[in-house]
Amino acid sequence: MMNAGPYLRLILVLAMITCSATQRAGEYAVQDVPYLETLVQSGEGFTDDGTAETESRNTDGSFGAGLIERFERSPAFITVLYGVITYSILTMIILLVIILLNRRRMQREEMQQEELREQYQEILMEYLFDEGDQEPSLDELVQIASNKFSRQILIDQMIDLSINLKGEIKDKTRALYLQLGLDNDSIEKAYSTQWHKNVKGFRELAFMNIRDAVDRIRECLNSNNEILRMEAQVAMVRLSDENPYQFLDFMEKPFSLWEQLTLHELVIQHELPVPPFRQWFDSQNLSVVIFALEMVAWFKQADAGQEVSSLFDHPEERIRQTAFRVAGEIGMKDALPQLKERYNGESYMNRMEILKTFVKIPDEKHLDFLKSVLDKEEDVQLQILATKAMENTDEPGISMLIKLMKSKSEYKNYQIIIRHVLDGRIY
């Protein structure tokens, strides 16, 4: 049972205030009797027409002080205050009782649910794994499914079991789910107007591989609710046999990094089929294009090289930057001339990605270009990358670097960079 200490202390404080207010009210009432009698007998404090004077009779004659004194002597105010405090105390007591009763009811239901979970799990295990007579277990499950409260507990237990089941046993679990009509409950949740019920329905349908609400799930791919949107994505991945990323065709909202990582881990964990990601390079959703590029690099889809090269001219800088990096990660040697041409027209970060690609794909044919980067660039990071790319070409590049380092015709700052790169102090 929840701790009632704070509520009892609050009630005690309110009771003390009420007692104090009641005592003061009594004092004011006693004091007002002789005061009013004196005023009536003397006629003071009243005007000619019998109404009470509004001016104060205090020592300094100020109107404000007299008003406060009259306010404190007002029996009506004390009565109202007493009523408000009494109402507050009664309200707090009623709320406390309701909270405690509700808490007790929730604890009782939780204990009942825990007992039912264990009981239903045993029945399910007997039905799924017992090779003998399964009729008694099936009859018990049918009886359980006749109660709405028990149906949800049974659904949860079947979902928990299906997570770790494979093959024939999992198919048997799904068949039982349909036989008991539990799929109707999940579909009803999927079409509910409450998003948390949608989430639960999507999960149940996805784990049980039931596609009756795919259209509804697809609608939620672009929901403003991030949780609902992500659950719809996960459900679409689980419900797709051939292309788990087909939902990307319908994505209009930004595809966040967290969503990308979650779905990628899901595909890896369950060994789902991997589609050719170049099919989404022409998507209007830029986050989808970047994700497709990342997946091309992750799964080493080198056959997408031509499509990756086409993104070097994309109007969005982030797309180009990712494409430059992916070209290096999948070893697109044929793209080096195109990268060389784009170098001077790109931003600083994109020039860095281009040089990193030259580092990953060493080619002595481009030593002159890399040397020109050393000569023209003043940024140390760009010079280091160009030097490393030259070194990675082995003998031709190293010979050129040594020659540049030992040249005495003119001194340049990159000679220090070459010296450190060659002796491994930086890399």
Please supply descriptive tags for the structure shown above.
427 residues, mainly alpha, 20 helices, 0% strand, 68% helix
Explain what this protein looks like in three dimensions:
The chain has 4 domains: 5-92, no CATH class; 139-275, no CATH class; 285-361, no CATH class; 366-427, no CATH class. It is built from 20 helices and no strands. The chain has helices at residues 5-42, 63-72, 75-129, 135-144, 148-163, 167-179, 182-190, 195-207, 214-219, 226-238, 257-269, 286-298, 305-310, 317-329, 336-342, 348-360, 367-376, 380-391, 395-406, 414-422. The protein is elongated and about 100 Å long. Residues 28-61 have low confidence and may be disordered.
SSE pattern: HHHHHHHHHHHHHHHHHHHH
User: Distance between the terminal alpha carbons, to the nearest Å?
Assistant: 63 Å
**Strand content of the residues, in percent?**
under 5%
Uncertain residue ranges: 28-61
Instruction: Write down the Rg.
Output: 40 Å
The helical percent reads 55-70%
What shape does the CA trace take? elongated
* Mean pLDDT over the full residue set: 82
Number of strands: 0
Q: Label the structural class.
A: mainly alpha
- The number of domains: 4
**What does the main sheet amount to?**
none
Q: Work out the helix count.
A: 20
